[in-house]
What does this fold into?
Amino acid sequence: MNSKAKMIFFTVVLSFLVGASGMYVGMDYLNEKGVGHGAEEASTEPETTIDDEVAVDKFMKAFQLISEQYVEGVDERDLLEGAIEGMLNSLEDPYSVYMDQESAKSFEEALDSHFEGIGAEVSMTNGQVTIIAPIRDTPAERSGLLPNDRIVKIDGETTEGLSLYEAVNRIRGEKGTIVELTINRPGTSDLLNFEVERDTIPFESVRTKVVEHKGNNIGVLEITRFAEETAVEFKEGLQSLESQGIDGLVIDVRGNPGGYLNVVDEIGKLIIPHKKPIVQIEGRDGEKVRYLSSLDDPKEYPIVGLIDQGSASASEILAAALKEAGDYELVGQTTFGKGTVQQAITLGDGSQIKLSLFKWLTSDGNFINKIGVEPTVEVSQPEYFFLPPLNTEEDLKFDMIGEQVRNAQLMLKGLGFEPGRTDGYFGEQTVQAVKAFQEVNSIEATGEIDSETATFIHGAMNEVIRNIDNDRQMQTAFEIILKSN
It folds into this structure.
């Protein structure tokens, strides 16, 4: 190994030992404060050890052999980064990843007040780039992308062999540009194509409103992610709602991919009663650190949490704390199931390793990884909420059969235009439903779905989906609050 290669290698090794930076739980970030005293007590002794000098010597011999004798010239930095990625791949942990300088910079920029992209949290699952959750009110959500969608192509090029952050860098881009994603969706036989227009993704992490429901003023507090200022925004939003005399509160973490762990802890202290643990952090030696609520009694008004498959990590911490407090209901669908804690470790040259260091456990000590948090009241949204956009490369017309026809029928039915059937056969009643829709929207009533009609259908569907009256989960939460008063 030449002197340059030795310098690179030892720089990385030394940086790894001393360069710890922020800590994360999936997209749940533990900030530079770490996890407190208990985390420092966790054992760092590996279960299976080898002599350090032997290991370094073995690595250097392999590095030198390949760099000096391989049949073609190689880039020594690529060799080194490949070795690091190989070590992380051997863990079979989708959340422990290596980020080169460019990827690490993009990752840090994504923690800023805003960034440009499509607005989806992704991970590497079984070697496939997988959507954890599209962020609420972003291009990803508006385009119809869903949790657990597998991204198999980006702009027509396969994602096979890409690292997670290589894929992310291809997906992100300037506002107004288009990225085409080819999706393998579980339960769907055909690949789906989505053209998503990139936009500025703001870090507006808390949204509040008061909704009048059958004579009750119900506060709705939506958390889109657990960013650095979210706890402050949550406290201010909660105080504002309480000052308006709310009769109940809905805390909505649907589609929330997570954030800083200390932030969800601070939020939990405001709403979790009985001084119960909000979350527990467990090291590899089994030592646990508990984050306790400082609140004695439940709030004077009922609280209901809203969750779905896109609620991940920090969202699951809050959801589990609400559920296990014993005073609050949890409405929706089982969450994503992300139960590990990562720390970003700088490697001296701008690159980073994000490594899983801890498990997090619920208030009662449950490990929800790959399981998720189950609601106390299970409610699914209408099927048309999750349909992909219609692909109108070929007009949909009478006597056609296929999944595109079925999706169109479900959309029409959701819009109040009865297609007669939803099995994917374009029959005469579907023709009449299309004509009726076209007439209402001042489109030539052909009874066929071309690109213009499809665009109008998508626009109408977006309005229906965003109408709170059609949100079954929210309406169920309102009814629970009504019965509690």
Remarks:
- Residues 3-23+32-92 form one domain.
- The chain is about 35% helix and 25% strand.
- Residues 1-46 have pLDDT under 50 and may be disordered.
